Amino acid sequence: MDLTLKIIAGPEAGQEYICSGAETYLGRSQRCLVRLGSPSVSFEHALITRVGNDFFVENLSANGSLLNNERLLSKTRLRAKDQIRMGGDTVARVESLPAAAAAGSNRRLLLAGFVALLVVALVIVVGDPFSSGASTSWLGVYRIMQQWAQDQVAANGMPQDLPALLADAWRLESVGDRGAANTAWMKVQVKFDAWDRKLEADERMRGLPEPSQSTRGLEQLKSGERTTLPDEDMRVALKLFVKRMMEQQK
Q1: In terms of pTM, does the model score above 0.85?
Q2: Any domain includes 23
Q3: Closest by alpha carbon to 58, among 30, 84, 20?
Q4: Fewer CB under 10 Å: which end of the chain, C or N?
Q5: Is the residue at 162 inside a domain?
């Protein structure tokens, strides 16, 4: 079976052409099998080529061609009901294709759909960093951290962009974009560590004790046992929170 092309708009509207050879030219030239009469169509406006049971279309005109209302920029495989617009008023529609090509197109669509579903399932089951019932607790921790960071911008000179970096890292973590999330968490870590070291140096100069590095504060926030901590404990908790998020990317 060959490709059947029907003109649905233009001077030749209603005419059908059978594209059976290796090449089928469309245009005003006498060499064109699909001979078109519109003055807005180039002499050799487009070319349909056949490879086995597959057909491809490419633009030959400086005026351009459209495939399904999108500019045709490269050789593109044709599917049933595809529409090729040439010039200002001529449109050709693919009426039929060889059965093998149509079946292959359907198989490709089914395969693409299956792959998309598989990716979603993997993100949910494997890539979700908050599986095992922990999503609610980690979300609660993030919200506490985000509010505290915003407060620290005004109170203790935390970099103004750190809350925004934290929000971006959480967003990427939540959608399972592991590579981008890891990069975002690293930015949070670098920015936070620089600020934290500055505070620690100031505290040492004032003779204040160094904050404990215990994980208990973070675990209390995660479990819901606590909803707030002293600032020195929040600094440790945020540092550990970012570390936990980065470890999940490995």
Answers
A1: no
A2: yes
A3: 84
A4: C
A5: yes
